[in-house]
Design brief:
Layout: E1 4-13, H1 21-34, E2 39-44, H2 49-58, E3 63-65, H3 72-83, E4 88-92, H4 108-115, E5 119-124, H5 130-142, E6 148-156, H6 159-172, E7 178-183, E8 192-193, E9 196-197, H7 206-220, H8 223-229, E10 231-236, E11 248-252, H9 262-270, E12 274-278, E13 292-295, H10 304-308, H11 311-322, E14 326-330, H12 332-337, E15 340-342, E16 348-350, E17 357-360, E18 367-375, E19 387-394, E20 397-401, E21 405-412, E22 417-425, E23 428-431, E24 434-438
Parallel strand pairs: 1-4, 1-5, 2-3, 2-4, 5-6, 6-7, 11-12, 11-13, 13-14, 14-23, 15-17
Antiparallel strand pairs: 1-10, 8-9, 15-16, 17-20, 18-19, 18-21, 19-24, 21-22, 22-23
Helix pairs in contact: 1-2, 1-7, 5-6
Length: 439
Amino acid sequence: MAEQNQVPGLIIAAPSSGSGKTVVTLGVLAALKARGVNVASLKAGPDYIDPAFHGKATGRPCLNLDPWAMRAETLEASVAEASKDAELLVVEGVMGLFDGATLDLGSTADIAKLTGWPIVLVVDSRSQGASAAAQVLGFQMYRDDIDIAGVIFNRVGSVKHQNVIRASMNRVLKNVPVLGMIPWEHDLELPSRHLGLVQAAEQGGLKTIIDSAADCIERHVDMGALHDLATPWQAQGQVKPLPPLGQHIAVARDEAFAFSYPAVLQGWRNQGAEISFFSPLDDEAPDTNADAIFLPGGYPELHAYRLATAVQFLDGVRQAAKDGKTIYGECGGYMVLGESVEDAEGIEHKMLGLLPLKTSFAKRKLHLGYRQLELLCDTPLGAQGSRFRGHEFHYASITHKGVAANLFGAIDAEGTDLRNIGLAAKNVFGSFAHLVDRS
């Protein structure tokens, strides 16, 4: 039976990345939970890292919503999945409110249009007075099919600074309430690295940061007014983005392999597959009862030595490949399926050697963007010609690519031909693309 839920929701967005919306969202989630609200969260776009932070704040999995990469039924089913046993949904936007895969599709505003959920805009007010209100006015006027229902001004300074912003808002946007003024607090900044924030699992002081953010939100934001803004949207369906790799799928999960979408894993469960987890960094082999192995993306380059010396992990996956079991890798997992990974210091570490591929971080090059993908050979994900949508974000360079079948033909969101990506060798296949959904 399809899930059907109608839970009130709202969206926390910003004019641009770096406005502080992630910390504000974490604070709002933790403050709501402390108030006894059974709150669930969703994250706009293809990001893996922010959802892990959300999970720490709510104690629930955070699913992604992506208007470009997801079919309409997958997006709706993801909302239904997140809504289970929840009283309120909070969505964190991606980049700026109107930024997406293309000019016309994939933005946080598109999610707001689809669901009717109100937007709370987080504005970085550093070095702005009345201009902060003018910025909100411009965002309110840019599209007439969404509702900016409230504003939180972040990183405000003195009382005079607050008064100027409030007076300016009252002059041009009397109908948009100022829900809060958050002062600059350096201990609420989250550390970052080349793919974004440092992962939640790597931050020993994360609970302190979340607790501090919740306390800050309680002191400086009208939480009752924010909660009251939420409006319901009826969502139904079961998430089933990708065909399951097998009946029992062993999934690598640790700090080196952290980038697996909850909707994909839940979708495999919804289609009858069993999911088990193992940690390559702890030198764990995949369950021998599994008939498929999934190595998701993450940061293998930061742990290359440990992976190269994890004998039980390496032997277990190699034996599974010999036994004809399906082995699939995405991005970091794809690199580990190869012959070696060269770290940033130029040290080469031997990997599984199941695909004729060598990669390097010694000379970093950014590869970023959405991908439209077509299978060039038969795999458990689908027959040749099956189409998917996904995302690519990495700094690795390919230093050697041997003889093997190409996995995907790829074009970007604008239709530019990227030629062929990924490799397939019998029952082992992978690419740098993170698959989000069938096309």
